[in-house]
């Protein structure tokens, strides 16, 4: 069999010579437009053609062609009765495949269930992506009034329990870059928008091992979160519990913070990290009945 010589210029298949070039000459404008439509439709939760076209600043005819193309791949769906376009099952399947590429979500699932049962509040798993928190899994509480962050939801880091837990682990240089790129925006009277105040809160967060979101994103809702570490000791995710201020009160923060911190340490151990303070949570999980409801 003829052998092909290996040369220094030879590259792995799937990467052309100019694969690092992200300029306009290497982008497909029609694909970029289609992704814009898909992202905007997902953010809106559904839209009419005219409203979507106006939002994107595109002609209805152009947006319609994009939607019909996406519809053939089940990435969007059309409701003829309400004349509404919505995200389709195909988009969910692609997102589900993204989640399956890592053991994080699978390993977190039983820990989230146990955390919800122990605290009585909704348990969440989130990761940092481009300076925001992306929620990737959730187990809802059985209570009628609850927090709800469906997988795929994005949240500002400075006004999120998980976001602040991860910000607190960043070295100063990276923290400054993230906050420069995403200046703290005010959502409620409690939101920390002053950089000095936010950084002081992050110092306190790191010292106690868990963060507190006290109505900083939504009035009447509180959150407690802790970071998850991989085998290299890098923060790769955050676990949290969230609920209404009528149940998640100031007097409960230390107790909830301890539960969340132990749960996060258990998940860290499952990922190969050091399961600091995780042993008591593990024993509690094995002794407690775990609800089969995934919320």
UniProtKB/TrEMBL annotation:
Database matches in InterPro entries: GAF-like_dom_sf, HTH_MetabolicPath_Reg, TransRegBhcR, Tscrpt_reg_IclR_C, Tscrpt_reg_IclR_N, WH-like_DNA-bd_sf, WH_DNA-bd_sf
Pfam families attached to this UniProt entry: HTH_IclR, IclR_C
UniProt entry tagged with the keyword Phosphoprotein: no
Keyword list, A-Z: DNA-binding, Transcription, Transcription regulation
Bias kind Basic and acidic residues: ranges: 7-23
GO terms (BP aspect): negative regulation of DNA-templated transcription
An annotated Gene Ontology molecular function: DNA-binding transcription factor activity
Species of origin: Meridianimarinicoccus roseus
Protein name: IclR family transcriptional regulator
Span of domain HTH iclR-type: 28-89
